[in-house]
Amino acid sequence: MPASATDGDGTDARDTTVEDAATKLANDLRAVPGIERFGTLRLEALETSGPRPLRTMWRVAREELGATYGQMTIGEVMDRYGSGTSANA
Fold it and tell me: Measured in Å, how far apart are the chain's first and last C-alpha atoms?
């Protein structure tokens, strides 16, 4: 049988990496002064609009997170990945 790409706890290593990337993005977003004004903006909308720092953050995270998180709003990501912990913690 081929070796599985799972962590010791049985979770897929890729899922953990994506969760970590989402947590990092949420923490980075939270550090932006006045971010609450953009809470309803969908991450995918940062492709063409929004403040430059937010567009840059999304550009960096998009490859890893775009398919799963692009439809989420900035507020949803920050709520789900609050205080630097993943949703699975």
Answer: 30
Please tell me the predicted confidence (pLDDT) of residue 61. Answer: 95
Cα–Cα distances in Å, from 73 out to 26, 42, 69? 11, 4, 8
Domain count, the chain: 1
Q: What is the pLDDT of residue 9?
A: 52
pTM: 0.75
Q: Is residue 72 part of a domain?
A: yes
Phi/psi of residue 73, each to 5°?
Answer: -85, 165
Domain that holds residue 58: 37-81
In a domain, 22, yes or no: no
* Partners of 42 in beta bridges: 73
